[in-house]
Amino acid sequence: MTLNGIDISNWQPDIDLSKVDSDFVIVKTTEGTDYVSPVADAQIQQSMKLNKLVGVYHYATGAGAIAEAKFFLSNIKGYIGKALLALDFEGEAIVGGPTYAKAFLDTVYQATGIRPLLYTSKSVINQYDWSAVSKEYDLWGAQYASAAHIGYQSEPWEDGTAWGSFGKPVIRQYTGYGRLAGYVGNLDLDLFYGDADSWHKLLQSDKQVHETTTTTTTTNPVMETPIFQYSDDNGNKTYAYTHWEAIAGKAKLIRLESPNGTEFDLTVDDTGKLTVVKKE
């Protein structure tokens, strides 16, 4: 099964999605480290009200992969788990190659547990070795047959070459010159290779938290070594590389160990705030 959709941005500020036939809509939200599309929220909200499948994407500029990812995340908090996430990797950003793209994708994944899609063209795929990226992330691939105005296509033109280590894209953008009833102007047209259930799986975190009723005190280390800022009762703050573990399998109860061996038990709330639990 396949689904037809469009991707839009601030270049379509007046589009009325209720008049345009589509199974899904992917909306540009941010660019670089300082631009937020002024129409993104309205476009996303209308799509959701119309019960369309929704995605959001960030347009990379090369301003810094991690900085761009954090900027993207800070502006889509309300849509995490509700919309497909994607990185638009083209233009000046492509000089950073797969390393840049993966740093962005990894940052989003580490923060959300959701694996974003990489949007790029087949020509960019053929410029680099993407194997390190394709092992972990899916492709939203772009390739056009021509600049002719066309509508939805169930079998878009292919040039017969492979999509590198990705094998094939999960979404194919096959024109930037699409024309659909209900909108006067060009539209990017896309084909999703799957159904609604397949789409929803792409929105879900694959970092599963398993609840346990056992009383064992065996700890399960989190596969990270982050840096935490810790404040004592007098407000003195220090930064330290720390190892943290879920205590008795409870993700919201954390044991933090500093390099000198000092241990703290903490609780973590839904915002990520850490509170020291006094040991008896």
Characterize the structure shown.
By secondary structure, the chain is an alpha/beta fold. The protein has helices spanning 40-49, 65-75, 97-112, 122-125, 131-134, 196-201; strands at 3-8, 24-31, 35-36, 53-59, 84-88, 117-121, 139-142, 171-178, 187-192, 220-221, 227-231, 237-241, 243-247, 250-257, 263-268, 274-277. Strand 8 (171-178) and strand 9 form a beta hairpin. The chain starts with a strand and ends with a strand. Helix 2 (65-75) packs parallel to helix 3 (97-112). The strands form 3 sheets. Strands 1-2-4-5-6-7-8-9 form an 8-stranded mixed β-barrel. It has a 5-stranded antiparallel sheet with strand order 10-13-14-15-16, with no helix packed on it. The model is unreliable at 209-232 and 237-249 (pLDDT under 50).
Largest beta-sheet details? 8 strands, mixed, barrel
State the CATH topology of the largest domain.
Answer: TIM Barrel
CATH architecture of the largest domain: Alpha-Beta Barrel
* Element string (H = helix, E = strand): EEEHEHEHEHHEEEHEEEEEEE
Helical percentage: 10-25%
Query: Helix segment count?
Result: 6
Low-confidence stretches: 209-232, 237-249
Strand content: 25-35%
Shape: globular
Spatial arrangement of strands, main beta sheet: 1-2-4-5-6-7-8-9
What is the structural class? alpha/beta
CATH superfamily of the largest domain: Glycosidases
Mean pLDDT: 85
What is the rounded distance between the termini? 59 Å
Can you count the beta strands?
16
Number of domains: 2
